[in-house]
Amino acid sequence: MPQTHGHTAPSPLPTFAERLASQGSMLYGGDYNPEQWPEEVRKEDMRLFKEAGINEVTLNVFSWAQLQPSENEYDFSKLDRIARTVSDAGMSIVMATSTGALPAWMSLRHPDVNRVDEKGRKMRHRERHNACINSPTFRTYSAALAGKLAERYGGLPNLVAWHVGNEYGGMCWCDTCAVKFREWLRARYGTIESVNEAWNSAFWSHTYHSFDEIFPPNELGNMTGWSGKAILGGFSLDYQRFYGECVLESYNEEKAAIRRFDRVNPVTTNMMGTYPTYDYFRWRAGLDGNGDDCGVDVVSWDSYPRPDTPAASVAMCHELMRGVGGGGPWMLMEQTPSRQNWMPFNAQKRPGQMRQLSWQAVAHGADTVQFFQLRQNRAGCEKFHGALIGSDGTDRTRAFRECAALGSELKRVSGRILGSRMTPARVALVFDWQSRWAIDLSAGPTISMDYVAEVQRWYAELHRRNIPVDIVGPYDEYDSYDVLLAPCLYMMRASLVTRLRRFVDHGGRLLLTALSALTDEHDSLYQGEIPVPLRDLAGVWVEETDALDPDTSVVPLRFADATGATDVADDVHEGYTGTTPVIADSANDAAGPHGRVLFDVLEADEGTEVLATYGSEYYVGTPAFTFRPSTGNGGVFYAATFPDDAAMPMFVDRLLDGTNIVGLTNGPLTGVVDSRSIVPDATVPSDLRVVDLEVTRRVAANGTMFTFVINPVNVPVTVDLPASLTGRDLLTDADVTSGERTVEPFGVLIVESSTATAGQTA
């Protein structure tokens, strides 16, 4: 293939939606690794891809060893032939830089590229994610390869995006990283005295007298014997930040090399949802301090839910990834057509489930549907991972038939949805990777603390009500929202405190929970009455926090009487200072609402409304849920404990009361399961009787609305559709009317309507 060159004249990059609009339909394809097979197989694959409606392939993800046999030798002949075959078949290409796994010669001749693990062991040539990101050798050769690929293929008319690396993951603790970390600390703090102050290193005689005394905080260093918790939280936090910045720096070097030859096609890398190691909000596209183009131009991510993953958890990951990208359309870069291979039990997706999960991604803003992988690997550790084309090489498998059916649907209707955005949300939920790190590094207050799970619980209740939610980061502005949920926002730097205070002062409603606003960015406890930086706005003082094993101990909650009755529960604590009377819950404690995991013991200020109290333990009768009003309709809610499934709806009811915030349906869209229709299936509980259908909406620039109604389970569900969900089903071209309707197992409706005929239900 002759060399081609991209556009070099400076011009604004078109949005990803604009890039795809010319395709006429969403990208439908995924990872293709044809270097494993002879050319005649590739030609047959093209025929099968066409049959399945595939219009895109992602090439060259793990081909570095073939492209570069040695330091100064490059061989693009095989990739040329592959790219020509794909181009001749009329398919788009997402070109990867192939830097996600090292060639063996590099590991052998340049040992600085090999990682040192958390136990201090030097790796050899191993699996993917196997490079020390700070290795000068890796940085030099990875950027050089990205540039050569862009120079050669950047002008291909069917190229639609660049894919740098692959699922960046893990960390390194080698001597190279130690040197770079010291440089990072000098730039951040200036002096070793400032480092000691930030880390409170006087603790346990950990004062450092020079930067040379500081080494990466692996298991041999800044780690306790208490389940691997940090000795100095600020130390380990800084290393986590440092390494993540280095990974992003390496990505940006490859992106810069691409931009020298291709200024048009978006550059991305595939993220992994709530993956813990890097702060993805730092990867949002923008300009660095030097005015250079940085970050991902479009967010892409790989969705691999487990068989028992709730629909709300999958949806939250989609919303998180959309939030990382600033709210625009994103790429579903990977999912499996059938099964994974790396779980303890690799269940097949049930008939219709792949389609349902694909449309769910689109319903939450995806403008591509892509798979790993398009053809099953011949050998290697991913040989049992599902694929469009199995080892049989035919179109007769269930996976192929289902993918072909979805491909036909996407070709027919997805062009209408392309570029539309999620319906504007009045509620936002803060997800903070760095608070998560700090909580995980802390010894105490409980081993049962799971940051992601607690955030998901709040999202799940809003999702159940079909209320649009944006997931935002700790660096975002919040002024466009009416309600902001910030569960377990443990670590608050000064700039975040300022933005939260402004949000509340301007009439916003803020939710804080136990384990919120405790430390600064160095994991040093704020000194004063908790929650110190928001103490006046919250109107409560957390005197102490109890931690109980959630598997054995929960605490009943008593909610304020909705009628305003003045009776006060007999068990009210004599120190209770709230202003709202509380009555005993008549429900049996075992079935009623409970708090779990953590229990802040609060003292409420005068003027703070007590919405619920504890029903047992030594803090019986003291506030468990409070509201401190502020300007307008705003104020701060404080959840002193983590609500269980029975309590969560009651917490959210009070959070939204008086805001006029409603869902796309008037409450949950609950369908009834005919018990006679349940076929024994490992994915369906035998006692399932009702199902909450998922309802989301995308809105096009001309006001056309696409409302997605999705049945997340493998049983038919009968539901009473409200008038707000009427219109034309994009998939069947049939009218959707209000009233009783049966939605098939894993069924999907895409209701197209105008703003004149539908809207949010009051």
From TrEMBL:
<dbReference type="Pfam" id="PF08532">
    <property type="entry name" value="Glyco_hydro_42M"/>
</dbReference>
<dbReference type="InterPro" id="IPR013738">
    <property type="entry name" value="Beta_galactosidase_Trimer"/>
</dbReference>
<dbReference type="InterPro" id="IPR013780">
    <property type="entry name" value="Glyco_hydro_b"/>
</dbReference>
<dbReference type="GO" id="GO:0004565">
    <property type="term" value="F:beta-galactosidase activity"/>
</dbReference>
<dbReference type="InterPro" id="IPR013529">
    <property type="entry name" value="Glyco_hydro_42_N"/>
</dbReference>
<dbReference type="InterPro" id="IPR003476">
    <property type="entry name" value="Glyco_hydro_42"/>
</dbReference>
<feature type="domain" description="Beta-galactosidase trimerisation">
    <location>
        <begin position="425"/>
        <end position="660"/>
    </location>
</feature>
<feature type="domain" description="Beta-galactosidase C-terminal">
    <location>
        <begin position="692"/>
        <end position="752"/>
    </location>
</feature>
<protein>
    <recommendedName>
        <fullName>beta-galactosidase</fullName>
        <ecNumber>3.2.1.23</ecNumber>
    </recommendedName>
</protein>
<dbReference type="InterPro" id="IPR013739">
    <property type="entry name" value="Beta_galactosidase_C"/>
</dbReference>
<dbReference type="GO" id="GO:0006012">
    <property type="term" value="P:galactose metabolic process"/>
</dbReference>
<dbReference type="Pfam" id="PF08533">
    <property type="entry name" value="Glyco_hydro_42C"/>
</dbReference>
<dbReference type="Pfam" id="PF02449">
    <property type="entry name" value="Glyco_hydro_42"/>
</dbReference>
<keyword id="KW-0326">Glycosidase</keyword>
<feature type="domain" description="Glycoside hydrolase family 42 N-terminal">
    <location>
        <begin position="31"/>
        <end position="412"/>
    </location>
</feature>
<dbReference type="GO" id="GO:0009341">
    <property type="term" value="C:beta-galactosidase complex"/>
</dbReference>
<keyword id="KW-0378">Hydrolase</keyword>
<dbReference type="InterPro" id="IPR017853">
    <property type="entry name" value="GH"/>
</dbReference>
<dbReference type="InterPro" id="IPR029062">
    <property type="entry name" value="Class_I_gatase-like"/>
</dbReference>
<comment type="similarity">
    <text>Belongs to the glycosyl hydrolase 42 family.</text>
</comment>
